[in-house]
Fold:
Amino acid sequence: MSDLKKNYFDKITYRDALRLAMHDAMLEDKKIIIMGEDIAKYGGAYGATKDLLNLFGNERVIDTPISESAIVGAALGAAMSGLRPIAELMYVDFFGMSMDQIANQLAKIRYMFGGQISAPMVLRAQGGTGRSGGAQHSQSLESWIMHTPGLYLTMPAKPNDAYHLLRHALKIDNPTIFIEHKLLYNTSGFLDKNDPNFLFGKANVLREGKDISIISYSRMTNFAENAADQLNKENISVEVIDLRTLNPLDRETIIKSVKKTKRALVISESYYTSSVPSEITSIIFENCFKILKKPVIRYTAEDTPVPVAPNLEKNYIPTIEKIVEYSKKLCN
Amino acid sequence: MSDLKKNYFDKITYRDALRLAMHDAMLEDKKIIIMGEDIAKYGGAYGATKDLLNLFGNERVIDTPISESAIVGAALGAAMSGLRPIAELMYVDFFGMSMDQIANQLAKIRYMFGGQISAPMVLRAQGGTGRSGGAQHSQSLESWIMHTPGLYLTMPAKPNDAYHLLRHALKIDNPTIFIEHKLLYNTSGFLDKNDPNFLFGKANVLREGKDISIISYSRMTNFAENAADQLNKENISVEVIDLRTLNPLDRETIIKSVKKTKRALVISESYYTSSVPSEITSIIFENCFKILKKPVIRYTAEDTPVPVAPNLEKNYIPTIEKIVEYSKKLCN
Amino acid sequence: MSNTLLPALYNTMRRIRTFEERVSELFIKGESAGTMLHLSIGEELGPACVGTAMKNNDTFTTHHRGHGIFIARGGNPDKMLAEIAGKKDGYCKGKGGSMHIADMKLGHLGANAIVGGGIPTVVGAAMSYKYLKEERVSVAFFGDGAMQQGILYESMNMAALWKLPVVFCCINNQYGMGTKIEDAVGIKDFSKRAKSFGLNTLHINDLDVEDAYYKSKEIIESARKFQPGFIEVECYRFFGHARMDKSPYRKESEEKEKRKLDPISYAKSKLIKNNILNENEIDKIDNNIMNEMDNAMEFALKSPLNDEKEIFKDVYSKNDPMPVSVHEKIKKILSN
Amino acid sequence: MSNTLLPALYNTMRRIRTFEERVSELFIKGESAGTMLHLSIGEELGPACVGTAMKNNDTFTTHHRGHGIFIARGGNPDKMLAEIAGKKDGYCKGKGGSMHIADMKLGHLGANAIVGGGIPTVVGAAMSYKYLKEERVSVAFFGDGAMQQGILYESMNMAALWKLPVVFCCINNQYGMGTKIEDAVGIKDFSKRAKSFGLNTLHINDLDVEDAYYKSKEIIESARKFQPGFIEVECYRFFGHARMDKSPYRKESEEKEKRKLDPISYAKSKLIKNNILNENEIDKIDNNIMNEMDNAMEFALKSPLNDEKEIFKDVYSKNDPMPVSVHEKIKKILSN
Ligand SMILES: Cc1ncc(C[n+]2csc(CCOP(=O)(O)OP(=O)(O)O)c2C)c(N)n1
Ligand SMILES: Cc1ncc(C[n+]2csc(CCOP(=O)(O)OP(=O)(O)O)c2C)c(N)n1
Ligand SMILES: [Mg+2]
Ligand SMILES: [Mg+2]
Structure:
């Protein structure tokens, strides 16, 4: 971490972008502490907090007991009392252990207490399939969070966004749930620390296109881009939208895009039913109803627990081939 | 409870229908036990288990410590070991305390263990606004559950359905989340113990109509009926659909109705975003896209925590007046 | 021993009781926001002794039965009653109600309607004080019911592990709703539990509030020196769980018997016996409190209702847009 | 003392270790389903003594590091390895993997990937046994990490309150991932915690598996008579947390030192010293086990993959429709 002031073009990993964001934020703001299971000595189950203990000491980088409920609750208490904690849950699947503190406390204290106090904190977690983690270590539970008013929710796909979203979340007063993806840590991309285009709460139009809008977030964004490249070769022009934040949700960018392309495919790794993709599908229908050439399609993981067997897990979530296939069908 | 074999026409309360269902089921099946906070001596916070302790004894009607997580977990263990427990959470808001046991364990054990075992149990809880319970005692959290594959989910509006849904849930092998509404316990209606029309998983078309479909569940069903009556007087013919179960969801009845009426209003007391109403809205658009005369409207509670102040709470959820107003606008 | 301490403690306990009587009245008048009103009548000793032993900058969270604790910590009865009535002038603009009263200025980090829900908050607050080198203690108040919530033990362990300035204070009123403590726990000795996690412990089980004050003070001051503590105050819930509950699950004879164990009467007798105050002086205190609480009642009743827009405020920070109402959303869709 | 007990316990421990070595091999071959493989090498004593002290009809749940326990309870290495490989012939058709192995026929109510997640299951199982008047005990195995999960204390309280035939068994291997137990708890004396909730306790902290067996037996038999218990087995995790972990957070010298405390070597010496078995006989046992596990390996590698349809099975009961696949749903929408 000696090259702090550098910009990274096409070479920083998602993991390092996160580390750097925490590092830069902690240098700037002494009120930021990090707490979570194995985030200090171990450096985080996926390495996203590596070296921070050495740099900032154990007063600010704190290994906790395996007590998810109290981790979130203590971070909340610290956030109410002058600090700006980053708490980490090792897997989003552990929302279950701490859902009361997340949804009944963190999300609601400002409101219940009539605006007297806020909880400026970031709760980082990591989700998704891809490592045969099974039903309890592979979920995508953003829908629970998006269904909980009071919580900001971000799910970056790219290192540059990971950096800026985390930096921004560490400056605002709203509690933010920050969900990473276990298969993104090793991916890499550019980082522009002074990115003039970054705007919190704004979706990113990664490819402009005119035939179909593919809307997604987190790892599925990369699938969408890959599919778009293939479709381009077949003369289908795809607009790829990376939502980046789910709350706030950039409805305008979605609607504007679909008003142009008149076709939409929503991709997500979450369960199908009663979900973020249901929400986005509804929004598009509601607002583009008259001009849509085809029904909106939401392509998600299956409405079953996540299987361990790698051959099953692979087809349990959207595949690039099928994204291509469904896009073509929509453009027929 | 002396008049067990009677049928109740237009006079049983929702509360008593539930009590009777548990009573009848427990008489039939010795493997059924009930456990929860204050369900025995106290008879349940809303009286739904009154007298059952006296009738069935404290081996089968069990007051528990205030340990929601262990209540669900212990019920699950009992369900895996030969019993058929009914566990009660006093408020759906306490899903937060027990979400790991509900969503990571109860919902998934059959799948994770390759179909070796099931958890035949019912988890009763109670939700909704109307008693100034505030942000932590008034939520409608069915969307979290509907987003969790492996759990059946029922939300009866009527005493007759409360009875039959609970009886059925106590016969099947799937874990069922059974959500009541705090303002329904005192409402009354008929009970036909041999109802030939009852079918688990089937929505109930309460009013047939041709101009618009109003789709809802739980307490909002009564709002919909009330609105339909008013609309009828103004010559708008409303089809009122009570979903009764959200999983399984009776997509066919919804789609068939909207294909006929070509207009749909979805009513729910849950938050708006990423929700059961988003799901139903999506389904209608997806399947009726071409023939819809107007966009589907979902009318829900606000995307904010529930306020305590009675004047705020009242308008925080859908009102009958507004259901009427929006229906008219859709029928314009 | 000072001659002002017991009068002060008596005053606090009496204020709590009189306040709670007004809450009850508010309910009977049909002016309370809902019926989930949990009174601390009979339980005044704990709030008074621990609340008084805390210092000015110390902070706390409470459970759903938290009015008394906040009164003891300086809560303003006007704003409290207005909150309980769901009115605009309430501590939380009427949006929180009885179970969510809070006042950051007085260190009240919030009442909580989730049994156990406010406990880890004090762990975090104490982490903050330790890190910022502020000499403050944070105290979690909760009922015996919360002794059965896992989060308490997670919090105790953290407090002991990190040597935090925290005190866990259990107001054991013998019941969780209609369930007697004996039917909720395997072993009633809560101090033993707390000790096994590494906390200093104190078990208060008599009616002498003055004595309880000195003992509590020790625990709190040890906590300030980073030895976290646990206080159990045994008492009896004189009335039903909430305003609707007539306690059919316990015998009237039990209630009668137990209501004799009244910390306020005890303090009054002691004041008189020790010649600190006489009957007249005490009556005067009581009357002043009556007046104070009458005024609070008037304030609450007169306070205006909230504007409808209040629904959408305080979900996100002031710098961020408020949630768009469902009606706005529908309007927009219909106008498409 | 019998002359067959120690050989049996040795055999079990050796089978566990050899099995885990095969799991490691499976991983190295790239044939394991994922890398979340938690080996119990070094921790064989607890599973062997408690597993052996349990009776035929007794049941149990395990944590993520549960292979050893299941081997001790009669788990079939073929089906276990096939499960770990994510294959069709695995205990859970490859859908559960290493962290969710279960076998209802052998009373294995399931391994659990959530720290603490499987603990209340045994409380419920025991409720059932007591109600049905079956003389069975249910044992929850978990790591020292779960001592910091609230659900453990909720479960302990229920077990004590209802006098259930339950044993809580903590396999304390000194680490939760990279965090040393000293950095995770305020006080290390777990028995004290369990006692304060009303449980019988046993703390095993040496290498004599035979001795540990007799002591465990007592706890289990007391549980059968409705006095629930707690057993802590101290041991050392010889290798990394999971297969990818090289344990950079602890010194090699520590590992070297601690690996000397090997319950298997200890048992072997004792067998020889007490003239129960000689080196040759022991080698023969070891070789048999090698063969057994080689066969299991072959079985796992040969087992076929699942059919794609398997994704949709076992979500709901066989009498109910399977979930409709996303692809079917899309097809239908596109055909509208
Ligand atoms: C997590 C949770 N479970 C259950 C309830 C319902 N409830 C409210 S108060 C109460 C009894 C609490 O007893 P105790 O903690 O002893 O407090 P007390 O009411 O006696 O002051 C219960 C069960 C709740 N509010 N939160
Ligand atoms: C609720 C929960 N929190 C965190 C994890 C991640 N995790 C898996 S194993 C582990 C360490 C557990 O330590 P311990 O209980 O001592 O078991 P051991 O691995 O040492 O056998 C952690 C933190 C998890 N699986 N579940
Ligand atoms: Mg109590
Ligand atoms: Mg361990």
